[in-house]
Amino acid sequence: MAARTTHPTRVVICGGGVAAAETLLALRALGPINAEVHLVAPNRQFVYQPLAVAACFDLAEPHLFELAKIAGEQRAKLHVDSLASVEVEDRRVRLASGSVLAYDFLVVAIGAQRRDWLEGALHFTGVADVAAFRMLLDRFESGSDQRLCFVSPAEVSWTLPLYELALLTASHLADLGVIGVELTIATPELEPLAVFGPAASRMLHNLLADRGIALKVGAHAQRIEHGRLHFDPPATLEVDQVVTLAQLEGPAVPGLPSDAAGFLNVDEHSRVVGLEDVYAAGDGTTSPVRQGGIATQQADAAAEAIAAQMGAVVTPSPLRPTLRGVLLTGIAPTYLRARIAATGDSFEVAANPLWWPPSKIAGRYLATYLASHDPLTHDETLKDRPRSARNPARIQESHDEARQLALTFAEHDAAGGHFKSALEWLEVIERLDGVLPPGYLHKRADWQRNARE
């Protein structure tokens, strides 16, 4: 359907996270369309949350991107505000400040509400909890505590960060020579990372066993009392500290239909069911897996549907989710991919990157944009790659050789005063591993200071 009027069509995107940023990038990349785009976000910075886990161990820095810069590059007007309600009949949104914005198309990408559920546990939600986790870790480094359990809440399908925290904790303590710490993962899942299929579960079983991490599956944590963690089915585990993920609650946007938990139900084009020209993407929807990569795919589906209605030469593709995950293990990353299709599911586990750029959030446009910090064209998008037919051990060996070579060149260049070149070698390592080796975050900061002098 062509645009309704000759004046620019107004698209309002609400949200300041992954799905909102992907929607904006996709709309501008899909072709020349006569659109006036407004981005409504309560935050001034887009926070790249997946690296928060690595930041706990000084393996990465939280990546922050200015939303004003992103909006400016994509010719959008940024409103630092939040969505209060939607008036569907009048096609307008009311913001928390009291302002009102009319829309022709609306994309709601405001995420879900995170709720603490296990009293006495550290609820790890991302960058905001890095300092708290480091303080907890100090207790195990000093020997004050010795029993740490990582607990997955019920009804949370994206548990990968919890496994990363456990694996990186084990590696960190081993590197420091700390012994005697008992690490356990307790999850309601019947198999670890079951969303990625049996091969991923077997791989993770082996990894956890190698690191001395105990695993309790089918375990629903209930409460912590007097140093004991209680489960259903009835069982207890002695603990000094417990780390868990937050539970998610839907945004329950006034004016929009939602399920009993407040989540928005969308169709295969991310259109809110029962409404015209209102779309939703991200954790605030009823998607069975709430994960950044899936959020970007929902955003792409919405952007294509909107762009097509505005006259862009694009055929909207229905959402066929592909789940991509990078598991940080403390040695080298493992790449996981699961395709969910009507013809049957497929699962892959690989030592080599299964997409490029190999970012934690595998967004079609967002991954490339954040890697380059430049405006995109339609062809500059994330690309899937095949699993290597080479032996995984040989891939690992080549990976280790490449990392060591890059580290050698980085150190050599820094010793010679060529700090810009040394920093470029560290970027190569980040591409290889997703994070820097222990100690190199501080070295990079020193080299950056020297490069500016």
Tell me what the structure shows:
By secondary structure, the chain is α/β, with parallel strands linked by helices. Helix content is 31%, strand content 25%. The protein contains eleven helices and 25 strands. The strands form eight sheets. A five-stranded parallel beta sheet has the order 5-2-1-9-20, with helices on one face. It has a five-stranded parallel beta sheet with strand order 11-18-12-13-14. Strand 1 (9-14), helix 1 and strand 2 form a beta-alpha-beta unit. Residues 1-5 and 374-378 have low confidence and may be disordered.
Write out key terms for the chains shown.
453 residues; alpha/beta; five-stranded parallel sheet; 25 strands; globular
How is the secondary structure organized here?
Blueprint: E1 9-14, H1 18-29, E2 35-41, E3 45-48, H2 52-55, E4 63-66, H3 67-73, E5 76-80, E6 83-87, E7 92-95, E8 100-102, E9 105-108, E10 113-115, E11 122-124, H4 130-142, E12 147-151, H5 160-175, E13 182-187, H6 198-210, E14 213-217, E15 220-225, E16 228-232, E17 235-238, E18 241-245, E19 247-249, E20 278-280, H7 292-309, E21 322-327, E22 334-339, E23 346-350, E24 355-356, H8 366-372, E25 383-384, H9 392-415, H10 419-433, H11 440-452
Parallel strand pairs: 1-2, 1-9, 2-5, 9-20, 11-18, 12-13, 12-18, 13-14
Antiparallel strand pairs: 3-4, 6-7, 7-8, 10-19, 15-16, 16-17, 21-22, 22-23, 24-25
